[in-house]
Amino acid sequence: MSQTAAIPHGLPVERDAGPFDPPRLLTRLRETRPVSPLVFPDGHEGWIVTGYEVVRQLMADTRFSSRQDIGVIHDAIEIPGMPTVTEPSPQVPGLFVAMDPPDHTRLRRKLTGAFTVKRMKQLEEHIVDIAEQQLDEMARLAPPVDLVKEFALPVPSLVICAMLGVPYADRESFQANSANFLNTDLSLDEKIAAYTELTTYLGELVTRKRATPGEDLLSDLALDSDLTIEELTGIAFLLLLAGHETTANMLALGTFALLEHPEQLAELRANPELLPGAVEELLRYLSIADNFYRYATEDIELGGETIGEGSTVVVSLLAANRDPRRFDNPDTLDIHRKARGHLSFGHGIHQCLGQQLARIEMRAGFAGLLRRFPTLKLALPADEVKLRTNMRIYGVHALPVTWAEAEAE
Ligand code: HEM
Question: Belongs to which family (predicted)?
């Protein structure tokens, strides 16, 4: 048995095996002990779970409470990137990703109707239009341009704004506050300031919608007298943040990964019907949302280990998605692979509510981008691309790209 993994400066986030691959320590832990004891920087002991089967099992087991899921809020009020408490954190109204049943069930149920496959299909045309308009605007610019700024961030931001009824004109402030909130380099005060500014803004917005509802999801929710303004604000915060930060990073990092795999990119351009499968594979391969947290409400056996009641457990979706016991040659990007079954949207009762929306955005986004920019390439050496190792959602800070101007219509 290997020893307890002591991780002195936060979870392993440095990409020492390459921009798309898990940090080496994660791979080593998965190979030697997929359920590993872990000592956090403050000295308290917990666990890190890295194997596919054990991660899946854990996420399906509600004895592992999500009230420790500091993925969103807790980071901002505790040590960045690290849980410090050994008991469930207080609930934040509306933030159901960090709640357990029955509170989680009550709130999630109010949203499932708005995110069904059928409802998302109805939005598809609108999403394709948004992606195409953004590509029109990008084509008018003289390259090089930053793909994050001109394409990857605007598309999901426009989509989630339209869905929620958040004015897109306010994007600069909500994008900056979301980014600051997720930035593990910032001080606690700076993160709290970003969180407070964003929730104050959203609190005023949902209050206005309750008084004068429009035709959007937040207005529909505001009409439900069972929900308090604080709950509406928490829901709006969760949806706005999850709605733009995640997909934006998939579009940008996904483009980077495809540009670094030119044969697969060429194949995808020649056969766009391969795109849905390629999107699943990119989700698996990149696993941009990693390191979720759970809290053991009792002693629980997992993968031959006993996780003691009160332990904080870190769940690595990235390590799980690269487990050779589940996926052959897991570190190879293979757009022909049957990647469904990956854990990039989580598993169990908290499985991503926006996954169909994200899939449609990615299909529309990649399809348009590849078609419209057949000569797209990086405008700097790949090893100079700035990676988001300091952010709760992985990706690239910017992706300078260029193309042969005559070819982009
Ligand atoms: C939950 C990933 C896009 C809304 C989750 C979880 C993951 C995830 C891993 C599970 C968290 C946990 O178990 O603690 C992703 C990825 C996305 C994406 C990789 C993009 C590629 C979106 C979008 C929305 C969204 C576009 C839209 C609004 C949510 C919500 C939850 C969630 C509300 C909480 C669900 C619950 O607790 O029941 N997401 N997500 N996500 N996601 Fe996403």
Answer: Belongs to the cytochrome P450 family.
Say if ligand 1 is within 6 A of residue 369 CB: no
Distance (Å, whole) CA 286 – CA 103: 31
Amino acid, res. 14: E
pLDDT at 407: 59
Atom of ligand 1 nearest to the CA of 293: 14
pLDDT tens digits, one per residue of 70-128 = 443 444 344 444 445 555 566 789 999 989 999 999 999 999 999 999 999 999 999 99
Ligand 1 contact via 246 beta carbon (within 6 Å):
yes
Q: Do 369 and 310 meet the contact criterion of CB atoms below 8 Å apart?
A: no
Return the ligand 1 atom nearest residue 238 CA: 33
The model's pTM is: 0.94
Mutate to test the pocket of ligand 1, among 73, 120, 246 (most ligand atoms within 8 A of CB): 246
Q: Is residue 66 lining ligand 1, measured as CB closer than 6 Å?
A: yes
pLDDT of the residue at 226: 97
pLDDT at 10: 61
CA triplet 109, 112, 113: central angle to 5 degrees?
115
Instruction: Tell me the pLDDT tens digit for each residue of 374-399.
Output: 999 999 999 999 999 988 899 999 99
Yes or no: say if 310 and 64 are a contact pair by the CB < 8 Å rule.
no
C-alpha 228 chain-centroid distance: 27
Q: How far apart are CA 64 and CA 299, in angstroms?
A: 10
Across the chain, how many H-helices and E-strands are there?
A: 15, 11
CA of 361, closest atom in ligand 1: 26
Tokens read off for 336: 């022909």
Task: Give the pLDDT of residue 1.
Answer: 43
β-strands 300-302, 145-146 pairing: unpaired
Q: Is the CB of 295 under 6 A from ligand 1?
A: no
Tell me the domains of the chain and their CATH numbers.
24-403 (1.10.630.10)
Distance (Å) of CA 207 to CA 55, 109, 198, 223? 39, 22, 14, 11
Question: What does the alpha-carbon distance between residue 121 and residue 125 come to, in Å, rounded to a whole number?
Answer: 8
Higher pLDDT, 43 or 304: 304
Is the Cβ–Cβ distance between 306 and 80 less than 8 Å? no
What is the rounded distance in angstroms from the CA atom of residue 90 to the CA atom of residue 344? Answer: 26
